[in-house]
């Protein structure tokens, strides 16, 4: 959804479309960070000794892709301006979506939750 929001921003020729695209982009970005935090909390778990250290390490690891995207977005912006930044962001998001979908299909994983016994 975040990649699609970036594509909407690319097509923004009117302020209302730009506002809708920006809103969708920020909402989907917030949902991505919320899911990332939920995953870190799930990994740390309840019974982990020294949970604060593990959470801090995981939080640092999660920011590594953010740093790479800042670098890639900056490269796209320096070559093609605002459209280059948005294309770089949209393509990276859509590429990662394709990779995750491919892994789910190849490994036969589903999105269903397994109930604990």
Shape: globular
Radius of gyration, whole Å: 17 Å
Number of strands: 0
Write down the secondary-structure element order.
HHH
- State the share of residues found in helices, binned by percent: over 70%
**Low-confidence parts, pLDDT < 50 over ≥5 residues?**
none
How many structural domains?
Answer: 1
What is the average of the pLDDT values?
85
Secondary-structure-derived class: mainly alpha
Largest sheet descriptor: none
Strand content bin = under 5%
Task: Determine the number of helices (DSSP H or I, runs of at least 4 residues).
Answer: 3
Report the end-to-end length measured between terminal Cα atoms: 34 Å
Structure, described:
The structure is a single chain. The chain is mostly helical. Helix content is 82%, strand content 0%. The protein is built from 3 helices and no strands. It is globular and about 50 Å long. The relative contact order is 0.11. The model has no long low-confidence stretch (mean pLDDT 85).
